[in-house]
């Protein structure tokens, strides 16, 4: 049998085809402007004593400002930073602002994620084609109006509409006061929640709100950064007190009158089903009310649930329940087999070319050629709050209480599972005890609604044990990346080639959420590889999508999490092969990228020299609109890798809440370090081998490094901060280990033995 013919495609061909497929939209709907995001037919509903000024702002009689909160708090600080945007333009102290869950409406939908998913190189020319594709995707996102918290877009997406909402409300209040006092509006100013006039007149926003309601603000002007009083100035986290004193409400804390509990057992093999259940064996156990079967649906594995009066009773009965599982089609699946499949794909498939520039033949007469292969395993999210969802199905209506990143999709999942119209579903959002992409999924909603529909109208709280959580996640893909670089006699890079293989997160998520076919390239699979800031004159970057029987999902920083390790490790390999210092090597490749160079220099300067017996490793990575450089100070004792200190510099544009930015860098670094040193999900006989934190460990307090963060001053619009801190830490540590030992660790987790 001959060698299979390589497959290939181009980015432009794919995008033109995709846009052509929506030609009807381009002709009619597409030429219309993107709709405004301030007002809605389903107005931000006022309660007694409140006046609605636009879709984001209500004002109470006492002057309290109520802000529509369209993003979920999962530790990233959006319940502090987002109100700051509106309060800044409205001229009110943050202490006067409270938040309220936004109603389901398109004005709150995220229009930043979809344009960000287009596979364009950031240095590419901003031509008509690229601008058109981005505009159309933003228009589509606005039409879909999906409310979502993820991809580090909360601040980026709300930066304009929330500030505009505050500025519009301020203009309406000023106009109302000017009319009342019979003075020009231009003579009035605002301060601390009041309108003032030079004559000494003063009126609080609470006094003016009713008069301002329903008026048109006219042309509004947003503040210049130099005039910011809140934005750019650190504010204490508004959710911190309740999280310290225990009053914060997470999904697992929900308590409803008459509520019962359910524990689940799901098929251990991916895609398997329930063959037989001996319900009678547990029916007499304390508190047991009912045993319920559920089938595989929307990504949820098939399984059984025991409903009982307490979770402990449900858990004990579920563990004792005799269940016979069928083996399903994936009983022979293994990690070894999956990596062999990925390697074969790299051997036989040229993949999709995400970026190519120059002439790769420029490396034919190279003084030295450097080649390397890197690997990354599947990873679980392992959020501290295990998967849970509380549902009540009663009288044709459904109430859902849960920690979620996608309230709208959760409502749709519940409606479908219960067989009711979407308008009969109410979603009550709670704090998230960790999201990291896991709670972008709705499998727990489908499952809990199916169980609750058989509970006789009482609320049912479904909680997964850690073992069920670990074995039934949507995992970060396993991946392999191969690199080849041609160097000249001075260590300069003549040609750079990178091809990787792995599963597609987008294919899996779009199939689960919308039933869409698994077609086309996936920007998230190759992000962090094709969108290089390094100035190689001749480069080619491709990726091969290999479908996965292991369910895949977004994991904090998505493709950047593994691709930064691949790319930044190989950058070091090239530097050492060419006899160059790794920092100087990077500096020479960033001459046309001053922001990246400044971030790299800031991190290196802050880090200084390593302590005796330790070494520094450096990594630089651009993701989610932010540039991050990290220097890891590492020591090695035997096979033990110890990270003592990480210096992190970030340029995220305007840092809305600098303390919050620093906190997210610390969080992202520890999350990424856990994966770098310990994280690995392995598959054997079609099921996950890891069960709990004893064999899927995370960094403990005594292993946590000191983290020092440098925030670069910038007047650029905000970038993301929730995810960009995670990707650089693994390669920074690996590069430090090489400095100490001379061993190049090319697989995660990093192991010396």
Automatic annotation (TrEMBL):
SMART domains cross-referenced by the UniProt entry: Ald_Xan_dh_C
Stretches assigned to the Aldehyde oxidase/xanthine dehydrogenase a/b hammerhead domain: 245-329
Database matches in Pfam families: MoCoBD_1 (PF02738), MoCoBD_2 (PF20256)
InterPro entries (alphabetical): Ald_Oxase/Xan_DH_a/b, AldOxase/xan_DH_MoCoBD1, AldOxase/xan_DH_MoCoBD2, AldOxase/xan_DH_Mopterin-bd_sf, N-heterocyclic_Hydroxylase, OxRdtase_Mopterin-bd_su_IorB, TAT_signal
SUPFAM superfamilies referenced in this protein's UniProt entry, alphabetically: Molybdenum cofactor-binding domain (SSF56003)
Lineage, top ranks: Bacteria, Pseudomonadati, Pseudomonadota, Betaproteobacteria, Burkholderiales
GO molecular function: oxidoreductase activity
Name of protein: Xanthine dehydrogenase family protein molybdopterin-binding subunit
Gene3D superfamilies xref list: Aldehyde oxidase/xanthine dehydrogenase, a/b hammerhead, Aldehyde oxidase/xanthine dehydrogenase, molybdopterin binding domain
């Amino acid at each position: 049998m001959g060698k299979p013919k390589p497959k290939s495609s181009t980015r432009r061909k794919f995008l033109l085809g995709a846009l052509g497929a929506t030609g009807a939209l381009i002709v009619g709907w597409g030429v219309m402007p993107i709709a405004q995001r301030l007002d809605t037919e389903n107005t931000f509903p006022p309660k007694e004593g409140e006046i609605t000024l636009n879709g984001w702002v209500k004002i109470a009689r006492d002057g309290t400002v109520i802000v529509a909160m369209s993003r979920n708090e999962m530790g990233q600080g959006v319940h502090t930073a987002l109100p700051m945007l509106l309060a800044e333009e409205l001229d009110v102290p943050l202490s006067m602002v409270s938040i309220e869950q936004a109603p389901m409406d398109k004005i709150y939908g995220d229009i930043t994620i979809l344009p960000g998913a287009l596979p364009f190189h950031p240095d590419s020319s901003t031509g008509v084609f690229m601008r058109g594709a981005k505009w159309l995707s933003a228009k589509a996102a606005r039409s879909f109006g999906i409310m979502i918290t993820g991809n580090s877009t909360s601040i980026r997406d709300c930066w304009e509409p929330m500030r505009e909402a505050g500025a519009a409300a301020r203009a309406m209040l000023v106009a109302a006061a000017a009319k009342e006092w019979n003075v020009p509006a231009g003579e009035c100013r605002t301060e601390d929640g009041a309108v003032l006039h030079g004559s000494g007149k003063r009126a609080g926003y609470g006094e003016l709100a009713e008069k301002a309601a329903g008026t048109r603000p006219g042309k509004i002007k947003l503040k210049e950064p130099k005039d910011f009083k809140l934005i750019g100035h650190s504010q204490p986290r508004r959710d911190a007190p309740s999280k310290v004193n225990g009053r914060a409400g997470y999904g697992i804390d929900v308590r409803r009158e008459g509520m019962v509990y359910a524990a689940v057992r799901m098929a251990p093999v991916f895609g398997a089903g329930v063959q037989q259940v001996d319900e009678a064996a547990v029916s007499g156990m304390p508190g047991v009310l009912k045993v319920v079967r559920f089938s595989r649906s929307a990504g949820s594995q098939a399984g059984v649930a025991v409903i009982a009066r307490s979770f402990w009773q449900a858990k004990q009965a579920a563990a004792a329940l005799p269940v016979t599982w069928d083996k399903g089609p994936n009983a022979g699946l293994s990690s070894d087999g999956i990596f062999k499949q990925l390697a074969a794909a790299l051997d036989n498939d040229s993949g999709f070319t995400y970026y190519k520039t120059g002439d790769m033949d420029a490396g034919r007469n190279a003084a030295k050629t450097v080649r390397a292969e890197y690997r990354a395993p599947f990873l679980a999210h392992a959020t501290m709050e295990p998967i849970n969802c509380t549902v009540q199905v009663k009288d044709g209506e459904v109430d859902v209480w849960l920690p979620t990143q996608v309230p709208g999709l959760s409502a749709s999942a519940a409606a479908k599972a219960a067989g009711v119209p979407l308008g009969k579903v109410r979603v009550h959002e709670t704090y998230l005890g960790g999201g990291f992409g896991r709670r972008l999924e709705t499998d727990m909603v489908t499952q809990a609604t199916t169980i609750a529909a058989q509970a006789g109208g009482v609320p049912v709280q479904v909680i997964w044990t850690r073992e069920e959580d670990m074995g039934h996640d949507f995992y970060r893909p396993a991946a392999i990346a191969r690199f080849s670089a041609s160097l000249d006699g001075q260590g300069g890079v003549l040609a750079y080639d990178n091809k990787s293989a792995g599963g597609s997160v987008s294919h899996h998520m779009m199939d689960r959420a919308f039933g869409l076919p698994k077609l086309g390239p996936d920007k998230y699979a190759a992000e962090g590889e094709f969108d290089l800031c390094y100035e190689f004159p001749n480069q080619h970057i491709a990726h091969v999508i290999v479908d996965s029987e292991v369910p895949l999902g977004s994991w904090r920083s998505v493709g950047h999490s593994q691709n930064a390790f691949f790319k930044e490790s190989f950058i070091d390999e090239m530097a050492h092969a060419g006899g160059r210092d790794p920092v100087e090597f990077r500096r020479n490749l960033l001459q046309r990228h001053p922001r990246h160079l400044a971030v790299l220099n800031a991190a290196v300067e802050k880090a200084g020299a390593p302590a005796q017996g330790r070494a520094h490793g450096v990594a630089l990575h651009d993701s989610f609109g932010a540039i991050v450089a990290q220097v890891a100070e590492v020591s090695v004792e035997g096979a033990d890798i110890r990270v003592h200190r990480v210096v992190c510099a970030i340029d995220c544009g305007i840092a809305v809440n600098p303390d919050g930015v620093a906190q997210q860098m610390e969080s992202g670094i520890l999350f990424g370090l856990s994966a770098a040193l310990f994280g690995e999900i392995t598959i054997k006989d079609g099921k996950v081998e890891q069960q709990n934190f004893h064999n899927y460990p995370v960094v403990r307090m005594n292993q946590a490094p000191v983290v020092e963060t440098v925030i670069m001053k910038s007047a650029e619009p905000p970038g993301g901060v929730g995810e960009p801190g995670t990707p650089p830490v693994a390669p920074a540590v690996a590069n430090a280990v090489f400095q100490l030992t001379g061993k190049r660790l090319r697989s995660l987790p990093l192991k010396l033995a």
